[in-house]
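From the thread on structure requests for the teaching lab: each student submitted one protein with a one-line request. Submission from student K.M.:

"Model Putative heme-binding peroxidase from Debaryomyces hansenii, tokens only."
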Amino acid sequence: MTAIQKPVVAKREAPKAEVNPTVSRSTQTETIKPTKERTVSVFSPPVFNFAANSFAQSVSNEYKHASPKRIKLDNSRVQVPSIVKPKQDKPRPPAIVTKPRVINIEFPNKQKSGFKLLIRPKHEPSIKKQKQGIEVLSTSNTKRITKSISVDDVEYVEKVKHAIKQVLPKPDYDDGSLGPVILRLAWHCCATYNKFTGNGGSNGSTMRFVPEITDDGNSGLDIARSALEPIKQKFPDITYSDLWTLAGKISIQEMGGPKIPWRCGRVDCIDDRYVPPNGRLPFAYKNANHIRETFGRMGFNDRETVSLLGAHGLGRCHKRFSGWEGKWTENPTSFSNDFYKVLLDEEWSLGTVPETGKEQYYNKDKSLIMLNTDIELIRDPHFLHFVKLYSQHQATFFQDFANAFGKLLELGIERDSNGNVLPKNEFY
Ligand code: HEM
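Reply posted by the TA:
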């Protein structure tokens, strides 16, 4: 029996508080003045606060043995003609972009990390839409890929899959696996899709740029991106967008979930002008209307929505990222229908994460949690119907989840009859 002790009130909070001190919104508009080459400490950078900190955070995950010591800034500004083609229906003004500045990360042992950070300057007045972009790339792949491997290149994909499987186990992280956070990366890079405008979605891998990379909802996903970066270096022919979505599929399967349909061919857009605006990801403090509206915008019905939410049987909330804290189920690295069972069987009462003040639901012994949006699935009668169905029929859940997640990975992607992705001119 489900007993929710507090009456349900659709809680409206002020916009989400910034919980990650290293990612400050204000830095998005920070003007980066060109100066001579200089060295800046990663840990107290005066100007590149966001860039340096978030990058150092990413890199230090993979390179714990050798934390980055210094960042070298090459601040040369060179006027180069844009390689952006004008849109067919709306010709662009002749574009001049400023060459991005390059930051090389040096390690104590003097070896270069193999990464560099490109910081694109604030937009030129003539290009209204262009924002300052921050992109983390491997040095081996500064030429961004606007075409991924072909759907026929099965052998290459198999090698990438194998490499992804190798990075998933991580005994010193959370519950011993990067699977949940990598799955979340795949979901979030697709969840920006807007079926009404046709933009957003995984194609383009726009999460390499601000404002998407600094969207509050994406806090913590640098862990997943940096874990996959060495794979990108080793297999440069796969695009980030293909790699991140493939990694989501493999994570689900490796955690015991169903086989997710996936095809390659996504491209990486060459700059930040197609980054969707913040605010498209679902907000966990909101109600059923918001869930229906957000998933409806992506093209999902109630059944698909409830099946996708079953992924909350995996992983956990982190107060340092979202402000919420705790796991949904007892087995957070094992894909199952436990989320629905727990949601129905436990008694939930509203409480507060002491350190952040964020409200969430706790079960009786406070070992498990639910977010408001999770609880909304049993408050809303239409959602509740599917929660009950999936709690009783794991096979049905697996089938529905595989279909819905496969659909999620394809949002915004058009393919020809051979399965190859049709080019989106605006990306190049
Ligand atoms: C109403 C929709 C949703 C909301 C509001 C929501 C919100 C959240 C929040 C706040 C977290 C905690 C992040 C952190 O602190 O690290 C989280 C984690 C997670 N979410 Fe969702 N989510 C939603 C839907 C989904 C969907 C559809 C999927 C996948 C299909 C998903 C997969 C995950 C996973 C696997 C984690 C755990 C990540 C980890 O352990 O690092 N979520 N979600």
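TA comment: The chain is about 30% helix and 10% strand. Residues 56 and 68 are 7 Å apart (CA to CA).
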